[in-house]
Amino acid sequence: MAPPSDAPAQPAGDASDNTNDHLVQSDNPEHPANLIPSLCAKFWTLGWVTGTGGGASIRDDDLVYIAPSGVQKELMKPADIYVLSLAAQAKSLDRRSRMYLRSPARYKPSQCTPLFLAAFTKRNASCCIHTHSHWAVLVTLILETQGPGNDREFRINNIEQIKGFGRGFDRPGNLGYHDTLRIPVIENTAHEEDLTEFLEEAMERYPDAYAVLVRRHGVYVWGETVHKAKTQCESLDYLFQLAVEMKRLDLPWITKIEPVKPTRA
Ligand SMILES: CSCCC(=O)C(=O)COP(=O)(O)O
Ligand SMILES: [Zn+2]
User: Fold this and answer.
1) Is 72 close to ligand 1, i.e. is its CB under 6 Å away?
2) CA separation, residue 157 to residues 142, 151, 245 (Å)
3) Which runs of consecutive H residues, i.e. helices, occur in 66-216?
4) Which residue has a Cα nearest atom 3 of ligand 1?
5) Which residue among 7, 53, 137, 166 sits deepest, i.e. has the most Cβ atoms within 10 Å of its Cβ?
6) Does position 118 have pLDDT exceeding 50, yes or no?
7) Where are the alpha helices (H) located in 9-112, listed in sequence order?
8) Which of 48, 75, 110 to mutate for ligand 1's pocket (most ligand atoms within 8 Å of CB)?
9) Band of the pLDDT at 17, cuts 50, 70, 90?
10) Is 192 one of the annotated active-site residues of the chain?
11) For 121-163, what is each residue's pLDDT tens digit?
12) Is the minimum distance from the CB of 130 to ligand 1 under 6 angstroms?
């Protein structure tokens, strides 16, 4: 059956209408133009990029690789990827207009683009992942029930998976078991791009955070490398799911546990 005429076309991997195609052509599976589609296909199986929502972007030095908007992210091809230069973008007087080095004609770039750029420019991240995970959304809903003043930060401690997080931008090492992981929550907006100023403001308030939750929407997670962004996103999703189950069992997310001293025989 033919799709309705107003349905967004699915990526077909046809780059014939583009210039600078060499920017997305590589046999290396680690090339960002190959990695974004393969990561998004994995994220779809986790429920992170369902129904065109969510996505991922990768920065390689000055070049930023971006998925198309409104497409099923698990089906896109390297030829569907947009590429822009951070240096060229920085010179642009109009913050909202973007000069793409490669721009597939049939789509628009992801609405998440300015949020991904914030992670790259303000945190020197190399990868930013945006999920619509149920667990992320549920955590923001649970926090909402705790009322104004207590609903703008997710906090958890004394859980082993917290060690999956770096200590912060430009700070060596990872969090420890007894450390408290803090993730700011911002309110959702009618359009994804309008989240940018609130995400940037949360980054200012939480200089060491690697993620920002968006109420009733999902989460943005970044890292200094693709590997670290993915590890942190997985760790966070694990912690969000655990937190939802803990809440169901009436268990607190923050506990006071004294460090156990190792005994020597
Ligand atoms: C049903 S998804 C609505 C937009 C959104 O929240 C999102 O993450 C995807 O935006 P994109 O422009 O990348 O399709
Ligand atoms: Zn989204």
Assistant:
1) no
2) 17, 17, 15
3) 86-91, 113-123, 134-144, 196-205
4) 53
5) 137
6) yes
7) 32-45, 86-91
8) 110
9) very low
10) no
11) 999 999 999 999 999 999 999 999 998 888 999 999 999 999 9
12) yes
Give kind and range of the element (H or E) at residue 228: helix 226-248
Cα 98 from Cα 88, distance rounded (Å) = 9
Please state whether beta strands 211-214 and 180-186 pair in parallel, antiparallel, or not at all (unpaired).
parallel
Alpha carbons 125 and 166: distance in angstroms, whole number: 12
In this structure, which amino acid lies at residue 33? A
Instruction: Say which amino acid occupies 104.
Output: P
* CA angle, residues 195, 196, 200, in degrees to nearest 5: 120
Rg, C-alpha atoms of the chain: 19
Cα 112 to middle of ligand 1, angstroms: 7
The token duo for 156 is 């958890």
Give the sign of the dihedral formed by CA 41, CA 46, CA 49, CA 55: negative
DSSP per-residue string spanning 133-170: -HHHHHHHHHHHTT-TTSSSEEEEES-GGGGGSEEETT
Query: What is the per-residue pLDDT across 178-226, written as a single tens digit (0 to 9) for each?
Result: 999 999 999 999 999 999 999 999 999 999 999 999 999 999 999 999 9
Which residue has a Cα nearest atom 9 of ligand 1? Answer: 53
What's the ipTM? 0.98
Q: Which residues contact 31 (CB under 8 A, 6 or more apart)?
A: 78
Catalytic residue among 160, 187, 224, 245: 160
pLDDT digits (tens, 9 = 90+) for 38-52: 999 999 999 999 999
